Amino acid sequence: MNKDSMPAISIGLPFYNAEEFLLDSIKSIFAQTYQNWELILIDDGSTDNSLSIAQSIDDPRVRLYSDGKNKKLAARLNEIAKLARHDYIARMDADDLISRDKLEKQLRILLENPNFDLVSTGLISITDDLKPVGLRVPTKNHEINKSNILSANSGIIHASLLGKRDWFLRNPYDENCLVGEDTNLWLHACAKNDLKVLFLLEALYYYREDQNVTYEKLSLAYKTFRYSLRSVASQYQLAQVAKAYSISFAKSFVALALYKIGRLDLLRSRRNASPLTSAQVQSFQDEVTAILRTNVPHKR
Question: Whole-prediction pTM value?
Answer without folding.
Answer: 0.93
